[in-house]
Amino acid sequence: MKIALLSRNRNLYSTKRLVEAAENLGHEVRVLDVLRCYMNITSHRPSIHFKGEDLNDFDAVIPRIGASVTFYGTAVLRQFEMMGVYPLNESVAISRSRDKLRSLQLLSRKGIGLPISGFANKPDDIPDLIKMVGGAPLVIKLLQGTQGIGVVLAETNSAAKSVIESFLGLNASVLVQQFIKEAGGSDIRCFVIGERVVAAMKRQGAEGEFRSNIHRGGSASVVKITAEERKTALRAANTMGLNVCGVDILRSKDGPVVMEVNSSPGLEGIEKSTGKDIAGDVIRFIGKNAKKGKTNTKGGGR
Predict the structure, then answer these.
(1) pTM listed for this prediction
(2) 49 within 8 A of 13, measured Cβ to Cβ
(3) 292, part of any domain
(4) CA distance 30 to 38
(5) Which end of the chain is flanked by fewer CB atoms within 10 Å, N or C?
(6) In the predicted model, what is the mean pLDDT of residues 120-133?
């Protein structure tokens, strides 16, 4: 099988591991910088070109599309889908998961556990917005933030009001969420492939840091998840329509709550903390499921 891997950096751990796993399983894989691809959009023979070459002979495509290039990256992936190439994750599902507000609304519709969340653009009554989510302490997020950037913990109502006013002054939409104190600055990343949670790790924030992102200095360790946490992760992945994803869960006093569903989860932390061959599992999933023209988006969200 010939596989296209959309990645802007072939030296990233995840990219290298996927290439290694594909080659070890006898597949041919080619890394393509998604921003270097360009498209011919036509009714009868849509095509993608890369450095003058017509990319018309791939069986499957693995999208490793960064948040900053979601718009163009999903357009290229959509073109592959139009050409009948099997996508590991589909363009619609990736766009759905990258929209924080849309993903929360879809998860809410399915009754999946979430922190109490408020969304605003220009509220006339900020104190009421704060009260609506239970008051301080609370977490304030920019919708466009990734890897913990643009996320602030406000420990008092007055601090929350100041932060929200500052964000709104930048013409940014803000997401205000209940702070899950009992999580203790940790979360659980469940790595989902198909209908299975193949691995899980606990991410613990650095001392004095409420964000558990490894990019922010957090640490990772293997963790055993409960049946309810497993079910929550699988339901969240299915709601987004993603075949492969990382579902980030907090352990609250009311049960597991989903913080985010990541359509391009990193492999380094999960492989090193669990000792599992996650890259190999991803490639084996493609080998089992890839079929020409198999691009029907899962999930019922719009």
Answers:
(1) 0.88
(2) no
(3) no
(4) 16
(5) C
(6) 87
